[in-house]
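User: Can you fold this complex?
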Amino acid sequence: MEKEGIKDLSNADFKILMHQAVDMIIDLYDNIHTKNVFQSKKRDEVYNLFKGSLPEKSTAIKSLLETIEEDVIPNTALHFSPHFYAWVTSNATQASILGDMLASALNVNATTWLNAPASSELEQRVIRWIIEFIDFDSSSDGILLSGGSLSNFTGIRVAINQKCPYNYLHSGFDRLRPIRIYTSEQSHFCIDRAVASLGIGTENLVKVKVGVDYKMNLDDLVNKIEKDISSGFIPIAVIANAGTVNSGAIDPIKDLSVICKKYNLWLHVDAAYGGFAASVTELRNREFKGLELADSLTIDLHKWLFVPFECGALLVKSHGHLKDTFSLIPAYQKFQLDENKVDFSEYSMQQSRNFKALKVWMNFKAYGSEKLKQSISHSIELMNYLGGLIRSSEDFELMAPVSLSVICFRYVPPKKLLDTNSLNSLNQDIINDSERDGRVFIRETTLNGNIIIRACCTNFRREKENIKYLIEVLRELGIRNAHKYCR
Ligand SMILES: Cc1ncc(COP(=O)(O)O)c(C=O)c1O
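Assistant: Here's the predicted assembly.
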């Protein structure tokens, strides 16, 4: 009797399907500069495309690929498009896409050295390269994770392990002696989520004021630490930003490290967005001064190192920190005979893990650190160019200092005096209209209570013409909406 269940196609037929998928990928990248970045649809329209009960019978893979082409691709915002300005996002290189595809076909479980020797060695190698690329402390170690949120979570978990003075592992946190963590008002919300998930209590995440440059105010930090100590709290860590999500502000890391030393606090730096800009020497020496003094650091490769989602990294100062925090070895995994063989399953919460290192390795090797740095600098230059256009225009104004590659600005109708509420509503209208329009994909944020337009650039495919086009489109949408507010 012939066996039931899944049967492989012949390799020849599989290859035909592979080619069909490859053609789809090529189409996707074809004319990327001229096609719309987004197609606005009502939720029902997209819902209806995919509704249906659990399929009992099989469907030809060829026709599924056609469905992806017709229904999935058009309903996805193209993050790699030069017209995608919303959020700091992944804009994957060709080399890293190939690495990702092959990692999926290889189906490596990057958990123990034994079943994935190449993956384990490549992951250690790319971690070393990241450390060297941004000039972090050379004695550091690290791991690839899904992204900044998990990396910050993991960094905080290591910080607790190193700095909590009582044994919280069995009984949980002592309610009479709560630990405290300090971060700026501008930090990413994933810090709040990590603190909540770790059971620390969000009231023990102390938000420190920022200055007009959106950098952490050191006096406010010290006051808050001292007040907490005298009230019986146990300060354990400061989480600094090296590139805030809202405006790209970089906290004074060197000064923060002095404060952390004085109060025996762990210094974690959230450089999820900005970290790779530290590869640019002038920035490393100026804005990122003292980066190497951090005890741990989050950095996202799916942002400014141009690899596909998901890929972030956590770097820690000492080789032992990750293992000390996470190592638990079950009976069926006790085969580590050689201390030098790294089992990444001992380094984080994750047991089964995909082979992220391959796409990262492809990127470093295919382009080399020089080209990667040039593309990072290019993003910064383009956003400075946008800043210049805004400064010299009559109808846009900058709303935060230009830092790294995030620009915060708003449309202000020329020669009209609008109050704050009207300006907020007008700029929100522009964003909503841009979503329906689909030529550029850009979103808003809030700074000092104002709704502002935020353009982000971690995209090596973007050029000056695209920036001019962005301004043209936004101006058109601004004029179209302004009449509601200008009487
Ligand atoms: C500063 C900062 N931290 C953390 C994150 C979260 O990273 P992820 O989306 O990779 O989880 C982001 C995302 O934009 C970020 O900009």
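The chain has a mean pLDDT of 95. Residues 88, 147-149, 188, 190, 243, 245, 270, 272-273, 300, 312 surround pyridoxal-5'-phosphate (CB under 6 Å).
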